[in-house]
Amino acid sequence: MELKSHSLQGYVRARPTIECAQCGEQTFAPEWSEYLEDNRVRHFWVCDACGYKFETLVRFSSKM
Predict the structure, then answer these.
(1) Vertex 13: Cα angle to 54 and 59 (nearest 5)
(2) Which of 23, 35, 53, 58 is 20 to 30 A from residue 41's alpha carbon, by CA?
(3) SS3 of 12-49
(4) How far apart are CA 18 and CA 28, in angstroms?
(5) 53, β-bridge pairs
(6) Are strands 53-59 and 40-46 parallel, antiparallel or unpaired?
């Protein structure tokens, strides 16, 4: 058996992130998320670097 090590850079590139709307720092997870009707999800973010708070809205296709 062989142990493979993954680099941190490869992990960071593969993980979805969002940039803070104020300072541009990478944010990895929302504080909370809320499912809305019509296949929409709202995420509430707080930047760990500067404390800025912002929301994003994601729309999913109703066809699966």
Answers:
(1) 45
(2) 23
(3) HHHCCCEECCCCCCEECCCCEEEEECCCEEEEEEECCC
(4) 7
(5) 46
(6) antiparallel
Q: Which residue has the tokens 């809305």?
A: 36
- Residue 10 in tokens: 């490869």
**pLDDT lower than 70: segments of the chain:** 1-15, 64
What is the tens place of the pLDDT at every residue in 42-51?
Answer: 999 999 999 9
Which are the contacts of 41, defined by CB distance < 8 A and separation ≥ 6?
Answer: 33, 34, 35, 57, 58, 60
- What φ, ψ does residue 11 adopt, rounded to 5°? -65, -45
Distance, in Å, from the CA atom of 46 to the CA atom of 49, rounded to the nearest integer, reads 9
